């Protein structure tokens, strides 16, 4: 048995089922990291081969060719060219889709010409008969000089055949398929070959044409490459010729091996597309899907959320009674448990949201949304591809901003980066959920729709509308020259894989909870300390309150607890900022939660949970404690409709995520844009919240 792990690179066009095949090859042995020096996720996994050896599978970003137009595609190019990298692939598995094999083969011929052992995996083979497609695999193998494996990722067929093919990679022919020098300009390419020694001809050509997308080139090679890059017109002309000749070659190959007889097919795709991409019904269907999503977030999650809320409340009360007095035990019962409970309660809603997004992607419907929205987005300075980051932003703005790397034009990409944080992310969901539950009654509209769900959908629409309007303004203001061409893959509809959806929901929910949990735990500890210590008045609270109070013993204890909280360090901070936030309908406690949530929005609920737990003997869930909070001046509920709606509007607009600011800085390579986001969105949030409070109050 070979003890060395085989490095396998998995490449393919978007929507070919590459990720499904990756999941089935690697199972649960996956890890997510970053490419060196780049904040793009790199998915890797281990795969046990049938001969006893093992392989490390790297799932590279989807690309149409190795001539990159985005940062994601640059990663594919660099991975396949940098032979000095320890993860340089021993074999490349190129995933194609049977119905779009012509376009998929362009990428395959490029990979093959790099002289790397290559396997062509043709996915969705189970669809061939239904679509009237026939493929002569043996003849295609002989012509392409490669191993071809037919698979159906949806039916989990052919995965063992891929494993066998990987283990036999050393026996594969690595001769180039396509001699570009003979087709284009023999003398020119002979000069390249003589100048860039040590590289294959096609690798040398890629280094010249794609120099700006690779980082490993030596200084000596850069000087040689720069000589060839002087004549840019010639480079563009020859690149264009290469693409034409490759497609001519592919056409000749497919004439001999591939045929489609639509009369034998039973395809429903075109019928569905007529409805789902219709200029009227397409939007109606999309709006219906969104409405269903937001109704489900409240209706389906209510029972598990109530259970979790009650469980953490009981755990906190039990710990106060069971654990002895002391700083450490008070920290556990009044700081850590309420703080973590403030985020765990929202796992059901977040998981439901991720579930819907995963289903839309798995079925192939998300690409139709991109196509549907392109014309609208163009009017506002973005492309149809901007829809993906904006919709991804409902999960988290950080990966959504990273997803803008698929947008070719810099202006389109910059505008999308700047407006994506307006989209309501899952970190806002805990804030929305708790405030909506406090101020919006559990009533039904037309006997069907939950009023709370409709308000939640309204907030999502507000965020999306703000992103669109901001994009329109930025498109008029920003003077950036940029050209972008819209290309979108329209994959076949398919039944979603339960395994892929489960992986996706589990990984994203886990990442959210663990990522938020670290921040909340740290902030809960700091908040508890600040709320449990204070000035001399804090230390002498019992004596000061007892001298002036004429309340009963039970009421006296509540007065002492309230006095201590107001005179704690956190209370002093809150009182300092209270004049600034009072016009919005907030008190100093809410002010503390606002400040702490600038680290991460979801900290808001955990902060209030900690503040209301410190020194309090009142039983009840965090929602019950917030509902019982009274404004001492007006004697009305603190969380009434004006104040609650003001908070919802503030969180809809404010930029409260340090991680998002950091990723914007990284993507734009400047602090200018994240600072514009922070102060611009902050000012908008303040004035919008102020107007909301004033209008509703009067």
Present the secondary structure layout.
Blueprint: E1 6-12, H1 18-26, E2 30-34, E3 41-48, E4 54-59, H2 71-81, E5 91-97, H3 101-112, E6 118-123, E7 133-135, H4 137-144, E8 147-150, H5 159-167, H6 180-183, H7 186-195, H8 201-209, H9 219-228, H10 232-257, E9 258-260, H11 269-276, H12 281-299, H13 302-322, H14 327-344, H15 347-363, H16 365-379, H17 387-392, H18 397-402, H19 410-419, H20 429-439, E10 444-445, E11 449-450, H21 451-477, H22 498-532, H23 536-539, H24 541-548, H25 553-566, H26 569-581, H27 588-596, H28 603-613, H29 622-628, H30 641-653, H31 658-668, H32 672-697
Parallel strand pairs: 1-4, 1-5, 5-6, 6-8
Antiparallel strand pairs: 2-3, 3-4, 7-9, 10-11
Helix pairs in contact: 3-10, 4-10, 12-15, 12-21, 13-14, 14-22, 14-28, 15-22, 19-21, 20-21, 20-30, 21-30, 22-28, 24-25, 26-27, 27-28, 30-32, 31-32
What does this structure look like?
This protein is 60% helix and 8% strand. It has 698 residues and is α/β, with parallel strands linked by helices. Among the domains are: 1-267, Rossmann fold, CATH 3.40.50; 515-697, no CATH class. The strands form 3 sheets. Strands 2-3-4-1-5-6-8 form a 7-stranded mixed sheet, sandwiched between helices. A two-stranded antiparallel ribbon has the order 7-9. The longest helix is centred in the C-terminal third of the chain and has 35 residues, at 498-532. The relative contact order is 0.08. The model is unreliable at 34-39 (pLDDT under 50).
